[in-house]
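Milestone M4 deliverable, item 7.
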Amino acid sequence: MAFRASVLTLYPEMFPGHLGFSLAGKAMQRGQWSLDAVQIRDFATDKHRTVDDTPAGGGAGMVLKPDVLARAIDSTGEDDTRPRLLMSPRGRPLTQQRVRELAAGDGVVIVCGRFEGVDQRVIEARGLEEVSVGDYVLSGGEPAALIVLDAIIRILPGVMGNDLSGLHESFEGGLLEHPHYTRPQEWEGREIPSILTSGNHGAIEKWRHEEAVQLTRERRPDLFEKAESEKSG
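Output delivered:
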């Protein structure tokens, strides 16, 4: 069964964006995954197609209305069991583990927030899982949704030309990825590490692992500590 993605947004023209190109685009053409961009504004009932209102209690900005957004979510189908994600800076950080879990399913529904946020009642009533792609604020959830879909689609079976190419990437083994090199052998006085051209595959794997450990320890001590604790446990 093909992976189905439904994205609820005020800017459906932003999709599929870069996902219409390269490996993801070819996979879409082959029918390995599909994308339905749903215009939230289509579910407003007043003549101005209003989707937002002022925040209760006062304050700056506007808030997406729960009734309008709920109708948009419900339009994906009463029996739709796909996970429902809300892109939000206050959500749980996206991890490679969660990406693998989502990729193992039959699809996902992603809600793209705008303005100051989404009415809390629709988050609770429709079981939205708040997901963050980083500790920063974007102008809307659309770029974040594209990031989530990019991460998922690339690991769907048959999307990457070589399924083994994902095994040594950052986060797959709890560590950052090791350095990469390619020809020419010497560039601007810098040589490819001799171990990589030795033909000794066991030594190469050992070197790559050691480099990954060192990089993770230096750049992401939080990941390093987690990997160490899981190894000892």
